[in-house]
Each structure stands twice: as C-alpha cells, then as structure tokens.
Amino acid sequence: MSTLLIIANVVVLASVIFHIFWGDNDIKLIEPDNSEHKKIENWIMARGAFHVVSVDMLMITAGLTLINFTDMLDSHRTILLKIMSIYCLLYAVFFFIVISVSGALPQKFLKLCQWALFLLLSGLIYFGI
Question: How far apart are CA 112 and CA 2, in angstroms?
Fold first, then answer.
C-alpha cells in the first residue's frame, strides 16, 4: 500500500464531495431567468458538463479505493494507475489552457486553481505506482 496513493485517494474523495455540493451552489448563482430560453439551455448544458467532472472524479475515487484497500484490481494495478495519472494530467493541462485563453481576471490562476489540484493528483498517483 502506497502512502502517496492513500493521500491521492483522500484528496480526490474530498474534491468530489466539494465539487458536487459546493460547486453546484456556485453554478446555481449564475442561473438565468427562465424567460431567456437560449441562456437557460446553455446554463443547463454547462451545469451538466460541470457534473460530468463529478462523475470522473467519483470514478477515480472508486478506482483508487479498490486499488488501495482491496486486491480486486491487482492484476491491472499499474496500467490503471498510469491511466489515472495521465487522465488527471490532461485535466490539468486543458483547464490551464482554458484559463489562459479566457478573459482577464485578477489572480485567475490562483482563484481557479483546479488545474493545480489535478496536477497534484496526477503526480501523487504517478509517483505512488
């Protein structure tokens, strides 16, 4: 059992809980008026896409939990961890790019630091293999 993988497991579990509940409250703050059909349609799509990330994080939590606390995935452990590490790295890179090309916001890389969270998870998983 790897300490780095246990830390990654705890971090991603906490992140998924915060993402689902706290993040959805933030999304609700920008809900448009129901009379603006195109804006409400776009908002629903954005909210749905936001929660697709929740599902991804939940699956990473489940995978790490199974790897850390059972022997069910032992025969596939290394490849699954490599895939998780690359997956988190891609999330970090794409989120960083989106922030980079988006409008001006004071300290936007600190305020929107999800890219750093995914980079941390990628590293913890990679070095925990």
Answer: 29
Give residue limits of the domains in the chain. 3-128
Collapse the DSSP code of 32 into the 3-class scheme (helix H, G, I; strand E, B; otherwise coil) and give the result.
coil
User: Taking a C-beta distance cutoff of 8 angstroms, is the pair 5, 125 a contact?
Assistant: yes
Q: pLDDT tens, 65-117?
A: 999 999 999 999 999 999 999 999 999 999 999 998 998 888 888 888 899 99
Are 89 and 60 in contact, with CB atoms under 8 Å apart?
Answer: no
Residues contacting residue 126 through CB under 8 Å, at least 6 positions apart: 81, 82, 85
Tally of CB atoms within 10 A around 119: 18
